[in-house]
Every structure is written in C-alpha cells, then in structure tokens.
Design goal:
heterodimer, A: alpha/beta, Rossmann fold, 2 domains, globular, B: mainly alpha, two-stranded antiparallel sheet, about 0% strand, disordered C terminus, binds adenosine-5'-diphosphate, binds magnesium ion
Amino acid sequence: MSEVLLAAHNVTKQFPGVLANDDVSVQLRPGRILALLGENGAGKSTLVNILFGMYRPDSGDVIIKNEVVDLHGPDDAISRGIGMVHQHFQLVPPMRVVENIVLGAEPSKRGLVDLEEARNRVVELSGRYGLEIDPDALVEDLPVGMQQRVEILKALYRDADVLILDEPTGVLTPQEADHLLSVLRELTATGLGIVFITHKLREVLAIADDIVVLRNGRVVGETKPAETNESGLAEMMVGRSVVLRVEKSVAQPGDVVLAVDELEVNDDRGQIAVDRLSFEVREGEILGVAGVEGNGQRELVEAITGLRHPMAGTMRIDGEEVTNGSAREISKKGVAHIPEDREKHGVVAVYSIAENSVLNRYHRSPFSIRGVLRRDVIERHAQEVVDEFDVRTPSIAVAASSLSGGNKQKLIVGREFSDDIKLLIAAQPTRGIDIGAIEFIHRRILEQRDKGAAVLLVSAELDEILGLSDRIAVLYDGKLMDVLDAQDADRERVGLLMAGITK
Amino acid sequence: MSRSILRTIAIPLAAVVFGLLIGVVLILSQNASPATAYTALVVGGLGDADALLRTLQKATPLIFGGLAVAVAFKAGMFNIGGQGQLLVGAVFAAAVGFGIDGLPMVIHLPAALVAGAIAGAIWGGIAGALKATTGAHEVIVTIMLNFVAGNLTDWLSANPWKDNSGNNIVARTPLVEDSATIPTLGAVPVGFLLAVVVAVACWLVLERTTYGFEVRSVGHNRNAAQYSGIKVGWIMASTMAVAGMLAGLGGAVESLGVDGRFEAGVNVGLGFEGITIALLARANPLGVIPAALLVGLMEAGASRMQFKAGVAPELIDVIQALILFFVAAPIIIRWVLRMREDNSEQLRLGAGWGQS
Ligand SMILES: Nc1ncnc2c1ncn2[C@@H]1O[C@H](COP(=O)(O)OP(=O)(O)O)[C@@H](O)[C@H]1O
Ligand SMILES: [Mg+2]
C-alpha cells in the first residue's frame, strides 16, 4: 500500500509574467481520490498538465509508480497508464462513440481498423465499470454528461490506472455532476487513482480522500474532508474569510416591471422550448428561475432580451408591449443583460477592455456623437468600470481575452450596471468564476434590487437561486412547474420540481 | 505603441525579404545578375517621372482592390468578388464618361466616378444581401458574380456601348470625354491621390466611428454583436456594398485615368491582386497603401528588368506569389492552431470560411 501511483515533487513552472506552480508537491495513492482545489488561475491545470506530460516543469520531478520519469509528451504519460479528461473535450463530434474511444489505439487486422473487435472491447469495458453507453451513437448527438463518459472510457481503454479530470463538473448539470461523483467513487474500487480538479467546495467534501488547496501557484493547505468544512476550504482558497451566502434584507416589491404572458418560444431546431409561460417580476425583487439546464432557460432569456422571436404570447415592460422588439429597443427601455455565455455573447475577445466596456452603449451619448466614437470618454468610462468593479488588469488597453473568467464577468457586470437599470436579466451570472468574484457579483445584484430594479435571475446553481431569490420559479421542459416564495423553498422541494415531479 | 506596430509589420516585411531572396536564386538560375536585375527593377519603377507615374498608376487600382478585400475582412467576410466589382465599375464609369458630353469637368468627372462606385456597390451588395438574408456564402456568390460581371461587361462593350469609330473590331467603348478624364499632377495621377484619401477614410471610419465599431464587432464576434443590438445582417450587407464600391471606384479610375475607356480583357486579374494586397497589408486600410506601392513598383519595373538583365518578367509574378505565400503561411498555421493561440493579435482571415 506504500505505492505512489503519481506524484509531483517540488515542481516549479514559470510562464511569462506568472509563476504558475511554485514548489508544488502532491501525491496520489491507489484507490484514492485526490482533489485539487483552487480559484481560477491558481495553477491547477498547469500542475496536471505537467503530470500528463503536456508541459515540462522548470524544476522538480514527476513520479509515476515510484519512479522518477521524464515525460516528453502526453504519449509518454499515456503509455505509463495516466489518462486525462480535459476541461474541453477532445472528441471528434461526427464520429461514433466506439471510434472516438479507440482513436489512436485502434485494434487492426491486416492493416485495417478492426471495428468489430474495437466495439467488443468497448462494450466489455463499459460493462465492467458500469459506464453504460451506446457504442454506435454519434458523439455530437450525446448530451455533455455522456460525452464526458466517452472521455473517461477513452482513458480506461488505454489501461489507465490514474485518471485526471480537470474541472469535470463545470459543464454538467447538478444531477449529472452527482452521478459522475458516484461513478468515480466506484472506479476507485478497482485500485484506480483519481486526480479531481474543481473549485466547488461541496464536491470536494463529497468525494475526496485527500484535499490539496492551491493559491497563486503554491500549495496553501492539505487536509481531509473529515477535518474541514466549506467555509474552512473557502478561506484556504481565497486567503481570507469569505461569505458564502450574502446577507440580504427583505424585499420591498413595487410595481410590475416585466410581465410575460403565455409566451411560447422555439429553440434552434424549431421545437417548442418555452411552453406558454406566464410570470411577472416586480421592482425591488429577484425572481429566480431554477431548472436543469436545457429546459428552456436560454430561449426564455433570449426572447426577453430581443435576441429571439417568440412564436406566441406577449411581453410587457412597464406596461408597454415589447414582444417583437429588437435587442436594442429592449435595452433602451432600461434592460440590462448578463448573458449566460460570456465568451460567446458577453465580450469581443480581441477588443480592448475599453471597447468592451461600451459594447452595447457605444452608440449613445456621451460615448459617441453623430456617429464618431469619443475615445477619451470611452477610456475614462472603462477606467471607472475597472476601478468600481474591481476588474484585475494591468491596463484598460489590453484585450479582454487576457482577463480571467471572473474578471471578464466583472467587466460585463460593470458595463451592464453603469446605467440606471429598470430590469436586470442575469443568466448564469457566476458560472465558472472564483468564490471572491461570485461574492462580489452577488452583492452587486442585490444592490440593484435594493435600488429598485426588477431582477430575473436564471441559474443552474441551486445554491445561487436559493441564496439570492425572493421568489423561485422552477422550469421543467419549458413549462413553469411552480413559483415558490423563498421562505418555502429548500433544496429538496426545488430539486423535485426541477425533475418534473409535483408531489 | 511603436512596438505593436513593429510586431504588426514584422511578418509582411519578412515575407517581402524572403520573397526577394528566393528571387535572387531564381535570377541566378537564369544566369543573370541579381544586382543588375533588382537595380533595373527599382529604376524602372522609380528612376524618373515616367517610371514613378507608372508605379503610381499600377498601384492605384491595387489600393482600391486591396481595400475592397480588407474592408470585407473586417466584417468577417472574404470578398473574392473584387474582379467583378471592378469590371462593372469600369464599364459604367466609362459609359457615363463617353455617353454624356457638354458637362463641365467638376460635374462630369465626379458623376462618372460615382457611376462606377454605385455599380460596384450593387455588385458587392448583392453578395452581402444574399448572405444576410439566406446565409449564402459570400465566397461562392462573389465568385459566381465575377463570371456574370465578366460576361456582362464583354457584352456591353461589344454591343450597346461599342466603339464604332473607324474600323474598330475590338470589344471596347469609345474614349471618354476630356471632361471625364482624370488629370495628372506632374508625375502624380490624381486617381492615386484619390485612392490614398479613400484608404485613409476607410481607416478613420473603421477605427473612429460607431459604424466601424459595428463592422469590427460583427467581424470578431457575430454573437456578441447581436447581443449588443447591432443589426448583423445589415452590417454584412452594407459592408459588402462598401467593399464593392471600393473595387468599383478602382475600375472607374482605370477607365477614366489610365485606359481612357473600357476595353474587355484589359482589367482581367486586377481584382484578384486585391487579395494579395489585403493579405500583405494584414487587412489594415493604411497598410494597403505601402503594399500596393510595392507591388505596383515591381510591376512598373518588370519590363526594364527584362530589358536590362534579361530576366523573364514573369519572375515578378513568382516573387509576388512567394511573398503572398510567406504572409499567408504564418496566418494559416496560426489559424489551424487557433485553439491554443491568444487570439488578441491574430487577423481573422478564417472568419469568412468558418462561420456560415
Ligand atoms: N500556456 C500558458 N502560457 C502563459 N500563462 C499561462 C499558460 N497556462 C496558464 N497560464 C497562467 O498560469 C496561471 C495558472 O493557470 P492555470 O493552471 O490554468 O490555473 P487553474 O487551472 O487553476 O485555473 C494563470 O495565471 C494563467 O494565466
Ligand atoms: Mg484550469
């Protein structure tokens, strides 16, 4: 039992301008799950990339099965039994599951790929580990959770005895995430060791055997689930005590701002995604929309913000009908929108922070006059947003692509909050960002509520919904299951509604 | 600031140097002297007023053609239709130039230029409008429109607008009136000055106006542009119309300032060179000017080079192709690897292909 499956020994890695790993040591033993915890940019991915042979450490050693190794690339690591599931899947979408799994290690017969044999081995493997999958399905047709399963099978197919997963739950719904955790636990029964990266405290406590916390490239703590709790872990991660749940006062709802009546919206494939929804949001309250992702939230938000035409029904803002209004007409009514996908909709990656700070205000005074941009005014505004919303950046002239996720999100929130807001549509406002930034953004959303804005908060994070909302609407299959007062809502009750179960 | 400019021009500069160096090898392989050849090339393009005039005249349509491609790139589209847009611009400018007489120059010349610009704008706008409304890919549509434009202008210059003077049998229009002819100031053709002014104007519009901001937003991230309330379809259609207008102006300047008429077959290929120029300029409207001057110089000096050094003038085409290759190669490589790249610096040449 003294065998060390995989270890980093005093590993240091310098990137231009950042010390990504500073004298880091970690150890993984057979049958155990090692959780690497840390905020975005803490150096978690860098560390596992070194263990997987993608980067070479500047100094320090990688140890595989009690042996110091010199990895020249992922192939080296794979041949030594290390498997990795990356943050972004490395699959070929139009190919079948079995083809994806054996890709690069295909069994062959007379120079041809022996798909029959490949299929048999995949079926055997998925049976052995209880990872059910249809080997003949096309990867592009699979939900994200299943695609991840393909990635795991890919590693197991190559006889991995160490599995590294980089933020595997970031792309999953709560249910899928829970399921993954139990699958991983079962996998360790065969002696497999797992390195599990996350920044979600609950997951760490639920699954880890050993916990290593990284901050700014250094190991700042090692612990075990039994010896700590969420706030202890959060404090280690951030380096100060943090409020996991922001204080909020009782809402003072006023007049109806957004009134949605019998709204029907189709998705990209023309199928009904929002099925005759009716609800209202009043000034000074936060209506949280809970639901497993893909139950119509995206289409609902796009319809309300003018990015998608509803098929039927009406929407009113302050009593005025805006049902087929364009995005710009709706934004003119005092509607701010934090989009769910910040890379896709929220920022233009190559634009400077200054340009991004006026992405949907550039056409208004004072940022432009008669069609000519006023760069000095824009730059001053950007500096204000950066200062007030604590966007960590060397300058407003750098491209948005150089910002971390949390800082990009703060930039977006700062941009959206720089006017008086009547209605705030916040879709997944804290997805994939660190605790410090989450706390910050939650405070700012509450601040808007207290200033009298009506807030529609759409989130797949149940904790976020429960923590911020005054009323909670649960979406299932495009339909409104129920609207609960926050006092009457708890994880269980909302969770059942999210699964479409009404008592 | 100056460092970032240096970084931007490093690749084109290196490409030119590499192109010329391989040119040396090619010249040696023809048993000629590279020094003599390149000296003759430069003298032929800059040596005296005539040479300079030739260079500037060659560079003028290249600037317009380069802008037609560069501006479309900014909106994330690949305009292969410069050739067709240039042809319709050339024939309609010539038609106004010879078809009306008795107008003073201050009215006639601008009218002829505008006719060419409008014709080009319509030609480019068709592709943009089809893309915006039906999603038809602009590369396919503009290639097809090139064929339509080629045949249309052949027919126009051979039939209704044919030059019937003497015993002319060539498909060409009559000479344009003096009042529609672009004058020359010393060794500087006014058409060239117009091209420079238009290039600067393009840069100003793209970088300093809300319209330019919308164009660049659409080019860099169509989804974010839509989110911010920009009418993406309108921007794509209008940018292609502007691109077509620029190429059409190039054609108009050819007819009114260089050839004095439209003649079928004379302008063939000019529109395509715009792609070379835009790549060399890395889609920067200001960069289009030096890029066009360089290529214009090589074309203007080619015949002297042949005469003095005995080097086939096709060498110039080869060097141009090499330069283009070296400019495009790092971009292509980066594009292939773009998932790993910090995309803040890269020119989105792939955008027109990758998005539908
Ligand atoms: N290839 C790279 N080049 C330069 N800097 C990098 C590179 N990869 C990561 N970094 C930097 O190293 C630090 C650690 O990043 P990373 O390991 O990805 O953190 P985490 O996975 O914990 O979010 C960050 O500051 C990041 O910007
Ligand atoms: Mg990471």
